[in-house]
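Example 9 (inverse folding). The structure is encoded as follows.
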């Protein structure tokens, strides 16, 4: 199994569509056997689902994510665990133990951090922020 995590400085990056790196873990028999940091080469939102699919990813752990990206991941057969935060390695190990703290309803959490950006009064690309 291959698990990808949106990644920045050892932590789970909080906006899927803006991540510049994933940390990808190869898992066998419930244990991490290897990991690598992979650059997204400037791809964003829906294109990232294709990037992960081409990389053979089975599971994505991330922070906030929009509806369009959710749909693209579902269509690619990638299981999604949004709303996670903290140290990437620790969270993957928690996932493997069945103890990952995540929120399946997390969407667009990045907007609260951007000046002049308010969810609810517009569409964000190809998804609603509600």
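The amino acid assigned to each position is listed next.
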């Amino acid at each position: 199994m291959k698990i990808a995590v949106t990644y920045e400085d050892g932590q789970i990056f909080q906006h899927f569509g803006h991540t510049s790196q994933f940390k990808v873990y190869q898992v066998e028999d419930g244990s991490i056997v290897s990991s690598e940091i992979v650059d997204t080469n400037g791809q964003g939102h829906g294109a990232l689902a294709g990037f992960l699919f081409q990389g053979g990813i089975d599971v994505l752990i991330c922070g906030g994510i929009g509806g369009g990206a959710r749909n693209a991941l579902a269509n690619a057969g990638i299981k999604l665990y949004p709303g996670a935060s903290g140290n990437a390695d620790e969270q993957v190990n928690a996932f493997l133990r069945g103890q990952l703290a995540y929120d399946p309803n997390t969407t667009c959490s990045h907007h609260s951090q951007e000046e002049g950006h308010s969810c609810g009064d517009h569409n964000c690309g190809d998804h609603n922020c509600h």
